[in-house]
C-alpha cells in the first residue's frame, strides 16, 4: 500500500474540523445568551445538571474562532494573526480560570465579573463551581491551536501532544460524569458538585478532535487517514476505544437508575463487559486484517495476471527485448532475443548485457550511465553465440515506478536496413554513373548535330535536334530530383550553412530564377529587419524557386503573386500567395508527399514526377524548419516555410518543435 492519503477520508476529516469549529462558537454563544437571559436549558441542559461557566463558554468561542481561522483555504496574514491571537487568548483564559479555581475556589475572577454583568449572584448559582479539567483543557488547546499553523514537524508534534492531553482530560471529565453514580451510591444522579457539564465535556472533546483533523495528512491524524495497514486498523479501532467506555458507563448508569441493576452486580458486570469489549476489539482487528489479506490476495492475483500479460507482450514482440536490473544484468529475454543471438533464455538470465553487446548499451566511455529513454536509438554491434556480429539499434526505456532502476532494452536487428541502405547507395551510384553519363553524351552529340543542321540551314531537322536536347534536359532534371530525394531521405546530406540576409536572398532569387516577363507579377513584402539566417543557400534557393514557379504556373495570367518575409517567435517565415483555383482539403493534406500530384498538376505538366514539393519539405526540415500550405477551393493558396534564426541542438529542437510549430503556423496564418 502507498503512503498517500485517502481522498474520501481526508474530505471527511476536514469537514469534521470545520464542523467542530462552528459548533464550539455556536454552543459558547448560546451558553452566554442563556446566562444573560437566565435560560436554564442553555446554561446546563437541565436543572439537575452542572452548568457551563461563562468563562468556559467564552473559551469555547475563542478556541472555535482560532480553529476556524486556521481552516480557511485562502487565509490572509490578518486571518492568521487573528487566529493566533484567539488561540493565545484561549490559553490565557484557561490559565486564569485554573489559577482562580485554586485561589478562590472558583468564586471570583472572570466568572464573577461576567455573572454580575448578567445580573446573576455568582456564589448562589447552582452548579457554578468550576471543574479544573475545563480550565486545563482550554490551557492545553490554546498553545496547540497557536502551533497548528507552523510548518515545522517539531512544532506540529508539540501541537498534537497538547491536543492529546486535552482530549484525555475531557474524556476523564465525561467518564467521571457518567460513572460517578456507579462508584458512590449516594451520588446525585448525573450530577457532581465539581463535575464538568455534559455539553462542556462534549464540546471540548469535539474541539480537540477538530484540532487534530485540521491537518489530516500530518501528525497523529495522518495515522488514521493514510492508506496503509496501520491506518486501516486505526480507523476501525480508535473510535471504538474512545467511545466504548462512555457508552458502557451510560448504559450501566441507566440500568442502575431504573432498578434493573443492583449495586453489588455493577462491578462484576463492568469487568465482564470490559473483557467482552477487549475480545471484541481483538475480533475487529482480526476482521480488519482479514479484509486486508483479501485485498492483498486480490492485488497479488491482479499483479500476477498483469505480469503474465507483460511477459506475453515482451515475448511476442517482433524485436529482441531484454529486461535489465540496475547492474546491467539480464532478468528477462524474449523469444526474438533467443532467435537473433542464438542463446537460450535460461543461459542469458543473470548474465551481463555485455555478453550480447560487448561495448555496452551506453558505449565503452560511459558503461554505468543512468538509463534514459532513447527515442532515435543508438547503433551498436552485437555478438551472437557463434561469435558473428550483428548490427543493432538500441533503444532504452526505464520502467517508471521501479525502485531498482529496471530498464527495458530493445535490441533491434538492423541487418535488413543496412542491406537496404547498401541497395540505395548502389541505386544512387547506378543513376549517377550508368544514366547520367550516357545522357551527357547524348546531350553533347545533340548540340553538335543541332549546330551542323543550323549551318546547313535545315530548320526542320534542327527543331528535331532541339526537341532531343529539351528531353535530355528534362531527364537530367528528373535524375537530379531522384538523387537529391534519395540523399535527403538517407540523411547523408551535410548542409553548407552560412549566415545570409534572407530579404536580400529573396530579391536575388526573383532576379535570377524568374523569367523577365513574369517578374513583374511578383510583389515582395519585407517586414521588420531580421538577423542573418544560417542556411544552405543553394538548397534553399531550390525551395523558393519551386514555390515561385508553382505560383506562376497555377494562377491566372496577370494576377499578382505576393512574397512575404516575417519573423515569428524565433523563426523566419517566408510565404508565397497566389490567386489560383486553390486546393481541396485532401490535396492540401498530401501535397508534400512523395510522388503526389493533384489533378490540375497532372494536366498542367504531364512530365513531372511529383517530387518538387517533397524535396522542398526535406530541405526545409533538414534546416530545422517546417513547410505547409493554407488554401481553400477558389480562394487561392498560400505556401509557407520557416527556418530557425539560429541553429539549435538536437535535444533543444526535439523539446520545442511541437509548440513552436503551432505558434509559427498560427501567427504566420
Automatic annotation (TrEMBL):
<keyword id="KW-0597">Phosphoprotein</keyword>
<dbReference type="InterPro" id="IPR013767">
    <property type="entry name" value="PAS_fold"/>
</dbReference>
<dbReference type="InterPro" id="IPR050351">
    <property type="entry name" value="BphY/WalK/GraS-like"/>
</dbReference>
<feature type="domain" description="PAS">
    <location>
        <begin position="306"/>
        <end position="359"/>
    </location>
</feature>
<dbReference type="InterPro" id="IPR005467">
    <property type="entry name" value="His_kinase_dom"/>
</dbReference>
<feature type="transmembrane region" description="Helical">
    <location>
        <begin position="269"/>
        <end position="289"/>
    </location>
</feature>
<keyword id="KW-0067">ATP-binding</keyword>
<keyword id="KW-0547">Nucleotide-binding</keyword>
<feature type="domain" description="Histidine kinase">
    <location>
        <begin position="430"/>
        <end position="647"/>
    </location>
</feature>
<dbReference type="GO" id="GO:0000155">
    <property type="term" value="F:phosphorelay sensor kinase activity"/>
</dbReference>
<feature type="transmembrane region" description="Helical">
    <location>
        <begin position="237"/>
        <end position="257"/>
    </location>
</feature>
<keyword id="KW-0812">Transmembrane</keyword>
<dbReference type="GO" id="GO:0000156">
    <property type="term" value="F:phosphorelay response regulator activity"/>
</dbReference>
<dbReference type="InterPro" id="IPR035965">
    <property type="entry name" value="PAS-like_dom_sf"/>
</dbReference>
<dbReference type="GO" id="GO:0030295">
    <property type="term" value="F:protein kinase activator activity"/>
</dbReference>
<feature type="transmembrane region" description="Helical">
    <location>
        <begin position="196"/>
        <end position="216"/>
    </location>
</feature>
<dbReference type="GO" id="GO:0016020">
    <property type="term" value="C:membrane"/>
</dbReference>
<feature type="region of interest" description="Disordered">
    <location>
        <begin position="359"/>
        <end position="387"/>
    </location>
</feature>
<feature type="transmembrane region" description="Helical">
    <location>
        <begin position="52"/>
        <end position="73"/>
    </location>
</feature>
<dbReference type="InterPro" id="IPR036890">
    <property type="entry name" value="HATPase_C_sf"/>
</dbReference>
<feature type="transmembrane region" description="Helical">
    <location>
        <begin position="161"/>
        <end position="184"/>
    </location>
</feature>
<keyword id="KW-0902">Two-component regulatory system</keyword>
<dbReference type="InterPro" id="IPR004358">
    <property type="entry name" value="Sig_transdc_His_kin-like_C"/>
</dbReference>
<dbReference type="InterPro" id="IPR003594">
    <property type="entry name" value="HATPase_dom"/>
</dbReference>
<keyword id="KW-0418">Kinase</keyword>
<feature type="transmembrane region" description="Helical">
    <location>
        <begin position="85"/>
        <end position="110"/>
    </location>
</feature>
<dbReference type="GO" id="GO:0005524">
    <property type="term" value="F:ATP binding"/>
</dbReference>
<dbReference type="Pfam" id="PF02518">
    <property type="entry name" value="HATPase_c"/>
</dbReference>
<keyword id="KW-0808">Transferase</keyword>
<dbReference type="InterPro" id="IPR003661">
    <property type="entry name" value="HisK_dim/P_dom"/>
</dbReference>
<keyword id="KW-1133">Transmembrane helix</keyword>
<dbReference type="GO" id="GO:0006355">
    <property type="term" value="P:regulation of DNA-templated transcription"/>
</dbReference>
<keyword id="KW-0472">Membrane</keyword>
<dbReference type="Pfam" id="PF00512">
    <property type="entry name" value="HisKA"/>
</dbReference>
<dbReference type="InterPro" id="IPR000700">
    <property type="entry name" value="PAS-assoc_C"/>
</dbReference>
<dbReference type="InterPro" id="IPR036097">
    <property type="entry name" value="HisK_dim/P_sf"/>
</dbReference>
<dbReference type="Pfam" id="PF00989">
    <property type="entry name" value="PAS"/>
</dbReference>
<dbReference type="GO" id="GO:0007234">
    <property type="term" value="P:osmosensory signaling via phosphorelay pathway"/>
</dbReference>
<dbReference type="InterPro" id="IPR000014">
    <property type="entry name" value="PAS"/>
</dbReference>
<protein>
    <recommendedName>
        <fullName>histidine kinase</fullName>
        <ecNumber>2.7.13.3</ecNumber>
    </recommendedName>
</protein>
<feature type="domain" description="PAC">
    <location>
        <begin position="373"/>
        <end position="426"/>
    </location>
</feature>
